[in-house]
Amino acid sequence: MYQLYYYPGNANLAPHMLLEEIGVSFELLLVDRAAAAHKQPAYLRLNPSGRIPVLVDGDLVLFETAAICLHLADCHPAAALVPAVGSIARAQCYKWLMYLTNTLQAELLCYFYPERLADDEAAVSQVCLHAEKRIEAMIDLLENTLADGRSWLLGIEYSILDPYLFMLARWTRNMHRPAKALPHFAAYLARVHARPAVQRALAREGLGEPVY
Fold it and tell me: Of 75, 122, 149, 209, whose CB neighbour count within 10 A is largest?
């Protein structure tokens, strides 16, 4: 049985939604960030970076959210959450997954943890302000992509990209211009939110309104 180490609303949400979508048995194990459990030796043995999530699959201990999502999709091909290896659609999937994790998610971390990049209060505020502006531009790019009438980020098929993007868009909910403020993004997020697997994951993590 899979074990997913999580903290409500953290980067574990995307693989959690995927596990619900796939329909396999798994155990959720809380890592209490409020008590700094992610910095304790027991957790650091699983993930030396001290970040959440971690997936345990038998002898495999896997961290990094994008890697976990790809692993789950590859291990459960019947769920059809990634296109065939070598296809154009698979290449597009890689492109968007890297964009989400290396570009949008990385900038969101600058926004939420500006103190990592600056020392004094004024500089911290500037880091946060500029990060939010860059995030808005990234959200605009995705809004323009969704404006072509596609149902899901990859096109007509739901994939690992959609719970991942839903998770990141959720993190913008308290910004001056959240992703849901854009018309195509709002409709897209409503479609993802309507999926039973997504609602089960949100409920199990205790994530209430505003969801996104």
Answer: 75
